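For reproducibility, we list the full input for the geranylgeranyl diphosphate complex.
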Amino acid sequence: MDLKTYLKQTAAAVDLAMDGYLPKAKERPATMHEAMRYVVFAGGKRLRPILCLAAAEACGGDAEAAMPAACALELMHTYSLVHDDLPAMDDDDLRRGRPTCHKVYGEGMAVLCGDALLTESFLLLARMRPMRRYSVADYVSELALTGSSRKLIGGQVMDLEGEGKDLTKKRLVLIHEAKTAALLVCSLRLGAMSADATPRKLQALTDFAYNLGLAFQVIDDILDVTQSTEKLGKTAGKDEAVSKATYPSIVGLAASRRAAVRYTRAAEAALSPLGAKAGRLRQIAAYLLEREY
Ligand code: GRG
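The corresponding predicted structure, in tokenized form, follows.
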């Protein structure tokens, strides 16, 4: 199957699974369940679940075992976007091509919607099958650590504190590690763990995801400068408008592009212990380097 078809089919399978897992829109409190579905089914790329499923495949596992984790990752990611868009954070009106959650449902509902998605992600992980090497507690710890103040929330704190300041590249990489790479690392690790991966394969996928995550955020920063709001489905030029230090603002566009290529090459190199089984992951890394949104 070619990559485009694979990405489309896998995203559709993830959507179907999330549709089954999430409370129905009419279930009480209907406003909340409607809001959760509004933000989740707004057309994101489903990159984190796709990476999770591809990691399971690379380790000889199957999609069915990895699916609750794949969906949990998308729910945690969507929560972070809903909260990131709030007036108290990035204050954005547009996400995934639609008005943001607080614009449609109000700020209070948007806060609760994010909280509900985050909580739901752990409920899903509790449905995972334990493997010989990994327990359900291992899956839960993995996601909890990623969502904690050590990673995702810590990244957001550094991001907020950095607004309007000149940051060093070193500081920016720290922010990118925490706010973006950590959830990608978690995606690959949960997929690998669902397939009972050996410690060597788990480490290889961790290294792959770390570098892929850094490449992904550098490209995100580049696209913020070079693409239109229509193409991105979120407000373009936002970083400059709020004086946020980004890769292009520190080293320029050309050097940013070179950094993204370097990180992608490092990601690909990390896959060598997985041999041909990691073919799909190699394709995804190359595709993300060329993405336009
Ligand atoms: C705890 C209050 C609170 C907030 C959490 C973690 C967090 C806030 C915010 C981070 C949000 C963020 C914008 C991170 C950057 C990662 C990134 C590039 C997200 C966009 O991911 P895509 O392009 O989005 O995969 P789609 O819409 O395709 O899923």
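Residues 162 and 244 are 7 Å apart (CA to CA). The chain is about 70% helix and 0% strand. Both points were considered when choosing residues for closer inspection.
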